[in-house]
Design a protein that fits this description.
It comes from Aromatoleum diolicum. It is an enzyme of class 1 (oxidoreductase). Pfam families: UDPG_MGDP_dh, UDPG_MGDP_dh_C, UDPG_MGDP_dh_N. Its EC number is 1.1.1.22. This is UDP-glucose 6-dehydrogenase. It is a single chain. By secondary structure, this protein is α/β, with parallel strands linked by helices. The protein has 3 domains: 200 residues, NAD(P)-binding Rossmann-like Domain (Rossmann fold); 86 residues, NAD(P)-binding Rossmann-like Domain (Rossmann fold); 137 residues, NAD(P)-binding Rossmann-like Domain (Rossmann fold), CATH 3.40.50. The protein contains 18 helices and 14 strands. A 6-stranded parallel beta sheet has the order 3-2-1-4-5-6, sandwiched between helices. A 6-stranded parallel beta sheet has the order 11-10-9-12-13-14. The chain is globular. The mean pLDDT is 97. Bound molecules: nicotinamide-adenine-dinucleotide (NAD). The site of nicotinamide-adenine-dinucleotide has 26 residues, from helix 1 and helix 5.
Length: 440
């Protein structure tokens, strides 16, 4: 099939690459010429395990191309995926300007039947806006061209995006047009050969399903974070509680880890947007509003623990920071808890030496011009002369560190473990003080 993917970011690039992997003829469009130039030169603008190989294989096979030419992109795909960003607007709602502008580009240039697919995470009712934008453009051109709008939200996880796309838990298709449903079924059939995991529903339910999924996961995290804070006060251990409740098959183990708050490009903005959608519809999502408040507070928990140990004035203090990305296996730092932590430590007068396996380039961009933050070439180097080690991202390479090496380099042998990656007893037995989240 001929496919166009509009927006070549984390979702668009993975979608384009994985669709070409099954033999489809894919064109990826982006408005950023530098991104397209890099891709055409064989580079990859993001870190995502396995993605580079899929992209290179399909570019060589001639099934995957990158362009900034909107006319060419609109003409190419019978299926036009919109995978542009939907960042939060000032009032928390999803900013739809990129989605609408992508829709307008399609309407401006299309000459034959198109299935326009919203893959971006968009609020209920967006498909109507996309339809109206395309109709507007067709009207301005004085032409009638048939098209259908479909909602097909993406559920991939950064860090496992290729695997998630190639072997999805489910594919949600919100559509009313029979021809569009047939095309979507045919497109996704190779990904669900084992058993059918494609669910067709009405468009509004599909749009809401994506937000409901992220809201549920964010709720589990905030729930555990609040319980962790309680565990500290009452002398319980949140890890024991996690195992205790996760073993209940009605609850399960996923997304029950206490830590220093959720971040990333999806949960914070999607929780905000869903709360906004509810308010605009005259309803309150009281549970979700609390989830957001709890997470904002949790992002400050590490600084509170550090200040409780060293005092509020951190002038002259220096901290080693392990992990900058919002989670392991990605270089994405959007809304990462590390950003708030670094800002708070610096504003209290401390300096920070940070290390991350893949997000240092992104961090240099994010923290450009920020004084007091330096970057270390490896985890142990970050600890050199630091007052304490603070762990913010649970990268695998941090899990079994050289504790003797850490202790030898720190001025005070303290580990603040914002992701509970260590066994407190083990760390203490190596002569280090241990401060986790909700740990005994
Ligand atoms: N990142 C994730 O893990 C993830 C997972 C599921 C869903 N989503 C959703 O998918 C959408 C995209 O997220 P992302 O992380 O890939 O964003 P991103 O910022 O990485 O990529 C968006 C891309 O769209 C491009 N763009 C903007 N307007 C354009 C236009 N008119 N024409 C062509 N290109 C345009 C931007 O230049 C950018 O490269 C969002 O709605 C997000 O919520 C993201």
């Amino acid at each position: 099939m001929k496919i166009t993917v509009i927006g070549t970011g984390y979702v668009g690039l993975v979608t384009g690459a994985c669709l070409s992997e099954m033999g489809n003829d894919v064109v990826c469009l982006d408005v950023e010429p530098e991104k397209i130039r890099l891709l055409n030169d064989g580079g990859i603008p993001i870190y995502e395990p396995g993605l580079k190989e899929v992209v290179q294989r399909n570019v060589i096979a001639g099934r995957l191309r990158f362009t900034t030419d909107t006319r060419y992109a609109a003409a190419h795909g019978t299926i036009q995926f919109i995978a542009v960003g939907t960042p939060p607007d000032e009032d928390g709602s999803a900013d739809l300007q990129y989605v609408v502008s992508a829709a307008r580009e399609i309407g401006r240039h299309m000459t034959d039947y198109k299935v326009v697919v919203d893959k971006s995470t968009v609020p209920v009712g967006t498909a109507d806006k996309v339809k109206a934008a395309i109709e507007d453009e067709l009207k301005a051109r004085g032409v009638v061209v048939p098209f259908a709008v479909v909602s097909n939200p993406e559920f991939l996880k950064e860090g496992a995006a290729v695997e998630d796309f190639m072997r999805p838990d489910r594919i949600i298709v919100g559509a009313e047009d029979e021809q569009a449903i047939l095309l979507m079924r045919a497109l996704y059939a190779p990904y669900v050969r084992n058993h059918d995991r494609l669910h067709v529903m009405d468009i509004r339910s599909a749009e809401l399903t994506k937000y409901a999924a992220n809201a549920m996961l964010a709720t589990r995290i905030s729930f555990m974070n609040e319980l962790a804070n309680l565990a500290e006060v009452v002398g319980a251990d949140i890890e024991s509680v996690r195992v205790g409740i996760g073993s209940d098959s009605r609850i399960g183990y996923s997304f029950l880890y206490a830590g220093c708050g959720y971040g990333g490009s999806c949960f914070p903005k999607d929780v905000k947007a869903l709360i906004r959608t509810a308010r605009d519809s005259g309803t309150d999502l009281k549970v979700l509003e609390s989830v957001e408040v709890a997470n904002d507070a949790q992002k400050r928990v590490m600084t509170s623990k550090i200040k409780a140990r060293f005092g509020c004035d951190l002038v002259g203090r220096h901290f080693a920071l392990w992990g900058l990305s919002f989670k392991p296996d990605t270089d994405d730092m959007r809304d990462a808890p590390s950003r708030e932590l670094v800002a708070e430590l610096l504003s209290a007068g401390a300096t920070v030496s940070a290390y991350d396996p893949v997000a240092m380039d992104e961090a240099k961009h994010v923290f450009k011009g920020v004084e007091g933050l330096s970057y270390a070439p490896n985890p142990l180097a970050a600890c050199e002369g630091a007052d304490a080690l603070v762990i913010v991202t649970e990268w695998k390479e941090f899990r079994s560190p050289d504790f003797d090496g850490i202790k030898a380099r720190l001025r005070e042998p303290i580990v603040f473990d914002g992701r509970n990656i260590f066994d407190p007893e083990l760390v203490r037995s190596r002569g280090l003080e241990y401060v986790g989240i909700g740990r005994r």
